[in-house]
Amino acid sequence: MHLRRTSDAHDAHIYAMVMNSKGRLYTSSCDGTIKYWDNPSRCINGKEILSCTDEIESMYICSDDFLYTGDDKGVVSNNCI
Fold first, then answer.
1. Domain count, the chain
2. How far is CA 27 from CA 1, 47, 62, in A?
3. Looking at the domain assignment, is residue 33 inside a domain?
4. Rounded to whole angstroms, how far apart are CA atoms 44 and 73?
5. Is residue 37 part of a domain?
6. How far apart are CA 71 and CA 55, in angstroms?
7. 7 in a domain, yes or no?
8. Radius of gyration of the chain from Cα atoms?
9. pLDDT tens-digit profile of 19-69?
């Protein structure tokens, strides 16, 4: 295995990563943000799509590309991506 690329994606721990059917990578962190990369193998900087005071600890993308998130307060949210 060879390391191909690294990126300082967040200012704190990354809790979850998930990829949708189009190859877009989403990451969430205890800094309260969700970021995405349209082409993660080529892009260094992600684009922030959500910033909140709660820690987004889990993410799931269902077959219709809806992003579900779970935070540290036990709230599940459905986010249109």
1. 1
2. 22, 10, 16
3. yes
4. 31
5. yes
6. 5
7. no
8. 12
9. 998 888 899 888 888 888 887 667 667 777 777 777 888 899 987 888 999
